[in-house]
Design goal:
This protein is mainly alpha-helical and 177 residues long. The chain is 64% helix and 0% strand. Helix 2 packs antiparallel against helix 4 and helix 5 packs antiparallel against helix 6.
């Protein structure tokens, strides 16, 4: 291999991999994981009942049920996405997250944050200007904004690499040459 190819390969497999993020910085991620797991449980609960929606959310119309071919599958899919976002949050602060290429993890963090932001804008709009019967509760909007702020703080911390021990040497089993 030439020097250019070796340098490109090391970009994806660095010689040093950071250890776990210090708790001072990681609590954002752990709270985000907790919020995501609550979401997963709520979606799973509704899936077992064959219902659309989420606790604290608006009543779901009969037409929305007619448009959804499999309600339980839809809810289980959303629960699985919540579980995936919890795993992404943990990967940002745990040592095993170093196995995921940094650009891929950054994409997951910021894409999830962007989707959550769009969702929260919709919820806040519906709380302030209800468009139909049985709108979102203000408490659900406050919870959503708090969860979004936690997620964005975690993504920012990971992006800036705050609290990471960047001097920790990865145990690769290979001798240094």
């Amino acid at each position: 291999m030439n020097a250019k190819a070796i340098k490109a390969a090391r970009r994806w497999r660095p010689e040093r991999r950071p250890a776990a993020v210090a708790l001072t910085w990681a609590w954002f991620a752990y709270l985000s994981v907790l919020v995501q797991l609550v979401y997963v449980v709520e979606k799973g609960y509704y899936a077992t009942q064959g219902r659309l929606g989420i606790p604290g959310g608006p009543l779901v119309s009969v037409s929305q049920y007619a448009e959804t071919s499999d309600v339980a599958l839809t809810q289980w899919t959303l629960a699985l996405l919540g579980l995936l976002s919890a795993i992404i949050a943990l990967a940002a602060v745990r040592p095993w997250g170093g196995l995921v290429p940094r650009p891929l993890l950054l994409l997951g963090l910021w894409a999830t944050g962007a989707l959550a932001a769009v969702s929260q804008i919709h919820v806040a709009w519906e709380v302030l200007f209800p468009s139909g019967p049985g709108g979102w509760s203000p408490w659900a909007a406050v919870q959503g904004v708090a969860a979004l702020c936690l997620w964005l703080a975690m993504a920012w911390i990971y992006t800036r690499r705050l609290g990471l021990d960047t001097t920790a040497v990865a145990n690769t089993g290979r001798d240094a040459k």
